[in-house]
């Protein structure tokens, strides 16, 4: 077991190293340059040159990369050109917003997706099944940002059931502890603050959950169908086990294995989706920042953010992998 | 990035055409017959066909110019004055007083072009990477395994960045244009195609007919190109069909992020949808038409792709 974990972890090293090299050189090739973004179009060539020197942009690329790498080893991801603050700080500042949003989306996707997929598989070919299969296909094919806009117009602007932007009503005085607004509200027992944050999460969370939900529903359904056809399920039923026992211990437990992996893989889609949903709801998380960074050619921030996201994505999947191997001993052998 | 990679490998293994199972006629023929009897596949194929026909004949189908602001004096977005469907403009006017129906019909071509070029790009680069890796792994000796390992670490790297973020970074690198969208969306698909073809080729390499060809002394390169490759294309073709759907959706997302086609003289659904978001409250129809068109088209490709996967391997019926 330990060897499995160590091996899997070591496999990440070349991937992440290569990724840093690739992204570094890649992002350096961006047209224009940060000096245009920082100084605007009106600056003189001299001012630009001074700034380039100050930022070290005139050094050979390999030197710049080495500088980047040594700093990286010290936990310094560079400075955002947009805000002049350390990239890691910028990320940390915005991470709770996106994490909260992603958790909301995953809770919706898992909470709705698994029961729905299971029921669809049990009643294969029925109305519910057709609706689930059709609905999930439409979910996968709908552009996330369009869904976000539609939800916002209908439920926030027309019906007024939910707030249309931000993480908390402006002017709402709440105590900040962790930066996770819902958690803060619960920890400080400011229930109205927690509730306010939850209502702000509802629409963006729903929009963001559309793709993971569709994927999880389909995966659960396919997986349950596969398990239902297994001999051991028939055996369990034949020997007279209670239906409830067969369903939970035999069917659900085995069917959930591939679904766990699917959930892990969706974290990547969540980060990508956050870029699209956060801007619609002015949510102010990582997604909005990545978008702003591409607009202002903020290389260090963009590089840093993508690197952190890739690391997190890879790590989350490593954890999923490990939990998977705990659930299913067969994985460790191969 | 082992998990995602492994899943793609497993998919490749599952859906790889199984050459030895043809009863009298080839697997391809059998798969096609199964496909024809599948109503989902036919619905998907019909949708795709309509889309392609509109894309090809679109400019002749459009009653007006898609870019001329013929009715510019009737629409005032600032004052929330829009013109909905009427006799002369079937889908109404857009925010600049252009005929929405003409824009939709003409836009189909660009949308298809973006999808097809992006998919072909992802497919060809991915197939080159994955094909070399697969052949090297299956037929090469130690150097082959090493080449395979290097190529696969490279694709793992690309897989570690969520596809849309990968596309965003490519698009940011190239600056907004229609070509950028194609390249960015295509690049994001490269690792998936590569991984898929490699997996399918490795699965094929273990089959008896490859052993037979080797025993007969057929040259390695010929085994890879003539025997293994054609039998491994099934899952890649399926993925290609599914990717057409993803490409159209991702292209729309890039347009929304301001990294799409900046040329207003070329109507394209993704850009139209992105532009229409500003008027969603006052004129929802402007966004709904391109959105529906994108959803239906993507659905068509997805249905067709899923049905193809099923027909190539009846075991993975879902």
Automatic annotation (TrEMBL), chain A:
Keywords, sorted A to Z: Cell membrane, Membrane, Transmembrane, Transmembrane helix, Transport
InterPro entries reported for this sequence: BPD_transp_1_N (IPR045621), MetI-like (IPR000515), MetI-like_sf (IPR035906)
Source taxon at top rank: Bacteria
Membrane topology listed for this record: Multi-pass membrane protein
ABC transmembrane type-1 domain mapped to chain residues: 95-324
Subcellular location: Cell membrane
Pfam families recorded: BPD_transp_1 (PF00528), BPD_transp_1_N (PF19300)
Transmembrane segments: 12-29, 101-120, 132-155, 197-217, 269-293, 299-320
PANTHER family: DIPEPTIDE TRANSPORT SYSTEM PERMEASE PROTEIN DPPB-RELATED
Name the UniProt record assigns to this protein: ABC transporter permease
Organism: Nocardiopsis rhodophaea
Lineage: Bacteria, Bacillati, Actinomycetota, Actinomycetes, Streptosporangiales
From TrEMBL, chain B:
Localization: Cell membrane
Segments crossing the lipid bilayer: 41-62, 112-139, 151-172, 178-197, 236-259, 279-305
Membrane-topology descriptor: Multi-pass membrane protein
Name of one Pfam family that matches: BPD_transp_1
Keywords assigned by UniProt, alphabetized: Cell membrane, Membrane, Transmembrane, Transmembrane helix, Transport
Family annotation (InterPro entries): BP-dependent_transpt_permease, MetI-like, MetI-like_sf, OppC_N
Residue ranges annotated for the ABC transmembrane type-1 domain, each copy included: 108-305
Family in the record: Belongs to the binding-protein-dependent transport system permease family.
Protein name as it appears in the record: ABC transporter permease subunit
Source species of the chain: Nocardiopsis rhodophaea
